[in-house]
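Self-study notes.
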Amino acid sequence: MRSSAFESEALRLGEKTYRLDEEGFLENPDEWDEGFAEAMATLTGIHKGLTPAHWEVIHYIRKTFRDSGKCPLVYEICRAHKLRLADLKGLFPSGYLRGACKVSGLTYKEEQAHQGWLPNRKAKRQKSLAEKVYRVDIRGFLVDPSEWDEGYAALRYLEMKMPGSLTDKHWRVIRFLRKKYQENGTVPTVYETCEANQLEIEDLERLFPDGYHRGAVKIAGLEAR
């Protein structure tokens, strides 16, 4: 086993350094590899090495994040692997978040959850969203549309508990709304949006089940006035 240690918010394995946040989680999930998992496992109380049962959970967490941009819930992990809570504790004694997720290089935090939903996955990761402030009104609409960014859209989508994750179809509608607002200073009607994006109303409902204004427009950081 290669030597490892937390030093200045970093985990060093030989010549490789993994950047960690203040809570010891991997700062950039894209830097994760199996060497990181093995070293972090020891630091989280797994002293006899990672078994096939550990790796099944770890790879499931990683795959879910790649596919949806979200770290899976503990309920999903237990259902998918037919684990009782005691079984999960036996595998990851320090907990699901502080054990399984940490070893997998992920966290539940919003700044991790939204990354896979952004349109340019290869773009440099944004600064932690924990440091950002978005002003919203009592109904959850963004007060100043100029404060909008893609991170806001993804976080709003997550907060609204809408199914799945943001897809290219969602982003086409969001970008259309933003573009028309910037050009005209008004939010386009639902008819204009559907016609421009070749959507039937049923298609729009599947994309934004909370509604056109309370779903699509809100996520785009706008509000029809």
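Second protein, same conventions, sequence then structure:
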Amino acid sequence: MLDRRTAKVLLTILVFALALAIVYVARTVFIVFIFSILFAYLIDPVVRFLQRHSLFFKNLRGPHILEAYLGLLILIAVGIHGLDPGFFRHAGGLIRDLPALSEQISTGEIATKIGDKYGWTDVQELRLKSFLIQHHERIRGVLENGQRIVPTAIGSLVLIPILALFFLSGGPILADSFIQLVSTKDNVEDLRSFASELNVMFQHYIRAKVILAILSLVFCSVTTLLLGFPHALALGVLAGVLEFIPVAGWMISATTIVTFGALTHSHWIWMAALLGLWRMLMDYFISPRVVGHELEIHPLLAIFTVMVGGAVGGIVGIYLSVPIVATLRVVYRRFLMTQ
């Protein structure tokens, strides 16, 4: 028979393995909850600002949370309208005609429609049509993957702000309830102090992301304006907002800006070169220093962490790698160095 200590060790290993298995199976749910928490940290400064400067309901967070959400929706609507006044009408038609549009892109017929709409020459239309035909298998695969991924992505984008509402309204209560659940009388204060330190760390991380988003907004707005792009400010806002999404965000914004420039006969080649240069500066100089300064992590360690996160977890790994390392740093300083 097993002695008590061996049985306890085996039970601990079993519980740990079961927890890892649950996390792996339900990883999508955990990722949505993590991004909901980060979104709550993004909105929380706005809510606290509104609460401090409000003439009414200063002791209530609920009305100010609704104000922050309403302001965010208005900002998004104004940005979309500035970029494309008929966006919602076009989006509805795009969703309805998506199968036919996919076929036109694969066969290259879309080149004729784009050329007729924007006054392209026959040579320009032929170049685009030849490119689409040569890469039609790859394009078809991308479109099919997009049709499968988009519904899940839209569902997550809708769910994340809803879950963030609960964290904004009852975050401290939820955290204290969890601490009470896992703590003992001897370590409850240590866990509360640890939670407070983690709270500050996440605030600094979100502050770093906001700084990077503002820098991208300013850069893209100024460059598109100087290069004669229509709706320069709206394109800059788009780049700033998408900066919060790692890898895919800047790819979408760069593709949108360059495509918009090509369609409107702006200096899109210069813009593509400047966006490539800006991305290199952001990834290897600006971002590591901003994030490293806010989280007290060396810039080289920040670059290494992001690269490892991307290799392990893709886009999600890139986004969560730095906060995970910062959390481990807090755990090390709080518990391991004091022993």
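Instructor comment on the second fold: The chain has a mean pLDDT of 77.
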